[in-house]
Specification:
Layout lengths: L8 H18 L6 H8 L3 H8 L2 H21 L7 H19 L1 H8 L10 H23 L8 H22 L6 H15 L8
Length: 201
């Protein structure tokens, strides 16, 4: 039996969890290679081995956010109502992940690190996650034989809406019992009011 890798996936996951917790507790400026390593009980060498740099660690946190979003959307079973499925994806996917991981959300969508340059890995998974949103919108388009929804534009509008709703809710700092219904109604209203390609004919 070969020797296990010194810095394996479990170490990587623990370091990412520690980094997220550190940002949540003390803000992005408190994040450090040494602090993350100490929190996990490992060495700075382990952090550099897995992430190369602090920027690489931040990149991995961004990737983690999109992984969580992707997993949340995939876990939602489709129904016969694509409009409701899109609203559910917004609420149980984007909203839940934003509320459960506000530090990661702020890093990626609020750009609390203004000069952060995200690389190809985060760009690839972000594109893949957005493609899932487009697929949900595409189901709405396919369900109506009389009109053709502009899928990319509606997907972008839904993303902008959900990002705005999440940012407002997180800024309030308290759970709003009416927020879930607001998200649902806002997504449905956007879908129903969005111009269809057939409207211009």
């Amino acid at each position: 039996m070969g020797r296990p890798k010194e810095h394996n996936a479990a170490t990587q996951a623990a370091l990412l969890q520690a980094a997220e917790a550190m940002i949540a507790a003390h803000g992005i400026d408190a994040l450090s290679i040494r602090g993350v390593a100490d929190a996990v009980g490992t060495t700075t060498r382990a952090v550099y081995s897995l992430f190369a740099s602090k920027a690489g660690l931040l990149e991995a946190l961004a990737v983690r956010l999109f992984e969580l979003l992707d997993e949340a959307i995939v876990a939602i079973p489709p129904t016969d109502d694509p409009r409701e499925d899109l609203a559910t994806a917004a609420i149980d996917g984007f909203r839940r992940v934003a509320l459960e991981h506000p530090s990661l959300y702020s890093l990626v969508f609020l750009r609390v690190v203004p000069d952060l340059q995200l690389g190809s890995e985060s760009s690839a998974i972000a594109s893949a996650t957005f493609a899932r949103l487009e697929a949900l919108v595409g189901r709405i388009a396919a369900s109506d034989d009389n009109v053709r929804v502009d899928v990319p534009q509606l997907a972008l509008a839904v993303h902008a809406l959900t990002e705005g709703l999440a940012s407002v809710e997180l800024r309030q700092g308290v759970a709003n019992p009416a927020a879930e219904q607001l998200w649902h109604d806002a997504v449905i209203a956007l879908v129903d009011g969005f111009p269809r390609a057939a409207d211009d004919q």
